Amino acid sequence: MPTLIEVPKGLTGVVVSSTSIGDVDGEAGYFHYRQYDATDLARTHTFEEVWHLVVRGALPDPATLAEFRREVSEARASIPDSLLDAVESLTAAGVTTIDVLRATLSSLAADLQLVPTIDGVVADHERAGLRLAAMAPTIVAATSRFRAGLSPIAPDPSLGHAEDYLRMVTGAVPSPELTRAIEQYLILTIDHGFNASTFTARVITSTGADVAAAMAGGLAAFSGPLHGGAPSRALDALDAIAAVGDARCWAEGELAAGRRLMGFGHAVYRTADPRSALLREIARTLGGPTADAALAAEPIIIDVLRHHHPDRVLEANVELFAGVVMERCGLPRELFTPTFAVSRMVGWSAHIAEQIIDAKLIRPSALYIGPKPGRRPVSPKGVVGETGDPNSGSSPWD
Ligand code: ACO
């Protein structure tokens, strides 16, 4: 038996793989895609350019970009009609948008005739990842329209990904200012190291499962409030602050009740989250009452957190101003996490491709801490009375 190595809870600080997609420097407050500063990319490039960089390894020249945009927009529009019917039924049944997206991935695996990643060629799996990521905005927007009792709006391949997404949700071509705001948000959230959802997608890929399975697993991990599920809660917190009328009083009350303040703190950053810095800037430029409320509450909440956790830097993370920007762009709160997923699926597709090539089953161990085991027989079958013993013969399924 190999020597077991105990690692910190949450795998904090444990290197489990190598990647050339990007990384986060939590001490410096910096993250990058390939060799480029990610916030610089968000300031200077389009979503499709950065998408190409992340999945193909280089910023595209104009001809390559035109071809890539065509590939993405064709995929965005290639939703089977049967899938739209499924989206409508799931929405009518009250399934949340992120779960509709997750469910449709399983159905798309059949539509696209995906094969396990252990079979076939990597290029086909990469194409599958691109197609699934490109379809996400169409599925999310259709879900939102059905939920509002409206018909879905067909994709327009002549538009950029971010612009078309907003148009498919709201029904109107967005202004260049709002298009650029949502595009910058999407660029900032494509990838972010070995976070829980990316790691989950890679674990699933390591089993040889198909690309849709890995993406669906990533989405499941992502949906949790401590990960991608926080932005709408951050805005709910702003509502609660408005109701209380005093941010400090609200924050103290939440902490006293043992609750976390959503939109603050980060597993890796020990300084300001650089995504938050750019999103704050965008929110300030766009303006509006929610931006004002967030800008006013942020320093007070940081101060309260500093007081309660003097040894831990707890600043605003990506989620606080992400919610502000998304709301200002016309996205309802229910779409905040799905919108985050629209960009993160691009990152997962790159990680899935990298993991396919890495080709090693991820299979850690756990330290057993239950009752001392031994080669003891279980109770004889059919003897009733030992409560909790699955072999006691009391099961109705026997
Ligand atoms: N509010 C109150 N207390 C906090 C917060 C917060 N937002 N964040 C951390 N803390 C406290 C914890 O209670 C803990 O205190 P203790 O040591 O007295 O028990 C201490 O800081 C350390 O917390 P951990 O959970 O060990 O830190 P971790 O790095 O695992 O947590 C996390 C990171 C989950 C993001 C955390 O900061 C949090 O829960 N934030 C709120 C949820 C949120 O905004 N999530 C989105 C993150 S960004 C993203 O995933 C895209």
SS field, number of helical segments: 16
Q: N- to C-terminal separation?
A: 36 Å
Return the string of H and E elements: EEEHHHHHHHHHHHHHHHH
Structural class: mainly alpha
Proportion in helices: 55-70%
From the alpha-carbon coordinates, what is the Rg to the nearest angstrom?
Answer: 23 Å
**Cross-sheet strand order for the largest sheet:** 1-2-3
The set of bound ligands, ions and cofactors reads:
acetyl coenzyme *A
Mean pLDDT: 93
Shape: globular
Strand tally, please?
Answer: 3
Low-pLDDT residue spans: 385-393
Strand content: under 5%
The biggest sheet amounts to: 3 strands, antiparallel
Please characterize this protein's 3D structure.
The two termini are 36 Å apart. A hairpin with a 4-residue loop joins β1 and β2 (30-33). This protein has 398 residues and is mostly helical. The protein is globular. It is built from 16 helices and three strands. The longest helix has 26 residues, at 122-147. Acetyl coenzyme *A (ACO) is lined by residues 10, 226-228, 230, 260-267, 309, 312, 314, 317-319.
Topology:
Layout: E1 22-25, E2 30-33, E3 36-37, H1 38-44, H2 47-56, H3 62-76, H4 81-92, H5 97-111, H6 122-147, H7 161-170, H8 176-188, H9 196-206, H10 211-222, H11 231-244, H12 247-256, H13 274-286, H14 289-308, H15 318-328, H16 336-358
Antiparallel strand pairs: 1-2, 2-3
Helix pairs in contact: 1-8, 2-16, 3-6, 4-5, 4-6, 5-6, 5-10, 6-7, 6-16, 7-8, 8-13, 8-15, 9-10, 9-16, 10-16, 11-12, 11-14, 11-15, 12-14, 13-15
Bound molecules: acetyl coenzyme *A.
The site of acetyl coenzyme *A (ACO) has 19 residues, from helix 15.
